[in-house]
Amino acid sequence: MQIEQSETAVSSISPADHSEALLQQLARQQKSKKKWLLIQPKSTTSMMVDSGTVSMPLNLIMVATVVGTLFDVTFIDERLGQTIPEDLSGYDVIAITSRTLNATKAYLIGDKALKQGKIVILGGVHPTMLHEEASMHCTSVVYGEIESVWTELATDVLKGKMQLVYRAKELKPMSRMTRPDFSYALDSKNSKKYSSLIPILATKGCPVGCNFCTTPTIYGKSFRYRELEFVLEEMRYHQERLGKKKINFSFMDDNISFRPKYFTTLLEEMAKLGVHWNANISMNFLDKPEIAELAGRSGCDLLSIGFESLNPETLKSVQKGSNRLGNYETVVDNLHKNNIAIQGYFMFGFDNDTEESFQLTYDFIMKNRIEFPVFSLVTPFPGTPYFDEMKPRIRHFDWDKYDTYHYMFEPNKMSGEKLLSNFVKLQKEVYKGSAIMQRMKGKPLNWVWFVNYMMHRFTSKLTPEYYY
User: pTM for the whole thing?
Assistant: First the structure.
């Protein structure tokens, strides 16, 4: 099949050339539907990020839902043990999602498909952040979300004339977001390996703009949200699908609480449904007791909070303005009073870190009985301001190791060896048996206990060599 490729990006094309009416006309003219193969690659990181139970890939499910309106879709998730066929002759388009830690694998798949004459589309975080690099391994790169460029992209697939990069001039309102069709994932072989948590999305974007974060590039600094009734209707749909009210949702939003009125109204309505949920959340107004009370009443089991550091200079350097050290203990206390567990994220390797940083973090975790502490090494992700700042000092550009668990650069105030030895020691101390009992004593016997047990087994075997 001959594929033409223009040297220009979609943003230079007249909107009249890519109207919805033209797309529908071309779609009706198909003698048979073009076949798309959507691929979620497995990463090759040594830390086994994609092993065991994995979350349902909501972004790829959303892509499948959009693509399925006009084309035939085959859905492959390598993390489930599914394999990509060597012979791709049964497909017209190979579309691959990628983040940095599986970019190498995504590129290999793209190269193979190109050799077989296929239209190859790369999307996701890494191809967006490094679209020039990604374009060497595909026909086209989708910059950001596919929904905002779908009319242009689908039209060009039908014409057989693809652009190098599809980048929207403006992002579409989330009110146009179609409810994801989970059958693409649930009908997959080995779908039982997916977590029972149902991913759901209410908002996109984060105006905070931490300099190490990829979100502003992917979804913009603007804050978009779905109408509340659409979110609630999706929850009710899953309740009916599963035949029970008490089901568990996991919000995929980057900062669901940014618009307080929207967030609190959503929680008030969720309280009537009887569901359970967890989410990533900014702590900027969790110091208000009434917010924590409402979250608990609405069925919140766990909130993931980026504490990041106990050093105010570090928080300032990464522009984490929503974090105020003076509020940390108040936030924790408010949540615990309402039986909400905390998954706390802590990062190490900043230039302001010293050996004392590890002790301060340990003391904070133990004193405040953080249920599920998660530790990572500072990782400047490509395309972010932090990456540009740190690039001269980064030890390597092996994307397989960009998983937040590998040593990227030496901080100013300690050697790399000291950084890693303290990093390992902290994890062993927090997850040793007596520390788990101290943090979890009197708390409900649920999956968080199991996670602590698994982390105890994992951290007991750690050595600094894991992180090189």
Answer: 0.91
